[in-house]
User: Fold this.
Amino acid sequence: MPTYESDVCIIGGGLCSAMLAEKLSDLRPGLAITVVEAGSSLFDFGNRLKYRQRVLDYGESAWPGDVLEDQAGAEGFCLTMAVGGQALRWGSAANRFSEEDLRLKSMYGLAVDWPLSWAEMEKAYCEAERRLNVCGEPSPFPGDKRSEPYPQPPMPLSYNLQTLRTWAEKSGIPFTIKPQAKNHVSPTPDLDHPGGGCRMGTDPATSVCDSYGRTHDHENLFVVGAPTTPTPGCTNGALAFVALTLRSADRIAAEFARHT
Assistant:
């Protein structure tokens, strides 16, 4: 069995792992980073369009081999281990959670509050949107106020959505285009989203890690992405998971700087 010497070992080859490795490489050039993935590489770029057509024609999976025996639901849906993780099924939705999602305990007496402020989360959201080159438009809702604009303008609306928008605006209903992580101007380098298995907090008795993903009992072990969320949010969580991962990358890089 080969041996690999690494400064950082990342377990799991999903979206957050890729973003963590990329940012650590930016912050600490020359860092030896190893990503370990137990699953196979299912992505076949050359046949992607053919697989997509077979989804439309026959209802087949777009990812042949994407199955875990005895773990599929009644509709055939399952989560497999593979390079790319749940990003293989991600439809590019890049919505933000709301500020109140982080304050369920203090605002409504439910669950727990997240151990970071909205200002910290919003800053990380902006970086995640830049790195994923998210396209979107300003929201009419005060609670969606942003400190930075989207990197790209929104996706063009189809004729049906243009008609729907006209009807909504005539009725006084705000209409906004879903932000998406899609390059449609100038590229730069819906399903369930499980989370909370290693939730963050300040009390080791009720949480696994701090707000940067550092585990309470192992200083060199970090958990990043979806597992750290204390509570679910109001929308697709992919952007939140990436934002939290980028905060973790800052802390990990700072630890290397402190010890060198």
